């Protein structure tokens, strides 16, 4: 688990391990639209995939196994 996050958003300073995650994040600054709301908390998301990933926080689901753990 490397803490290194070389891809930094110029708009807000948030850092990411992968360039693709930074590219996805950039939409939050100019789209402003987050139609997918979590039914269990106030968080909202730009697409249904992000909502589905977030909902694992509430369910405890861990579909991917870390090879180091």
TrEMBL record:
**Localization terms from the record:** Nucleus
Could you confirm whether the keyword Transcription regulation appears in this record? Answer: yes
**GO BP terms in the entry:** regulation of gene expression
Q: Which SUPFAM superfamilies match?
A: beta-beta-alpha zinc fingers
User: Origin organism of this chain?
Assistant: Rhinopomastus cyanomelas
What SMART domains does UniProt report for this protein, alphabetically? ZnF_C2H2
List the protein's name: ZN581 protein
Q: Which residues form the C2H2-type domain?
A: 7-34, 36-63
Keyword match Electron transport: no
Q: Which Pfam families match?
A: zf-C2H2
Q: What is its main location?
A: nucleus
Keywords recorded for this protein, A-Z: DNA-binding, Metal-binding, Nucleus, Repeat, Transcription, Transcription regulation, Zinc, Zinc-finger
PANTHER family referenced in this protein's UniProt entry, alphabetically = C2H2-TYPE DOMAIN-CONTAINING PROTEIN, PR DOMAIN ZINC FINGER PROTEIN
Which branch of life, at top level? Eukaryota
GO MF entries: DNA binding; zinc ion binding
An example of a Gene Ontology cellular component annotation for this protein is: nucleus
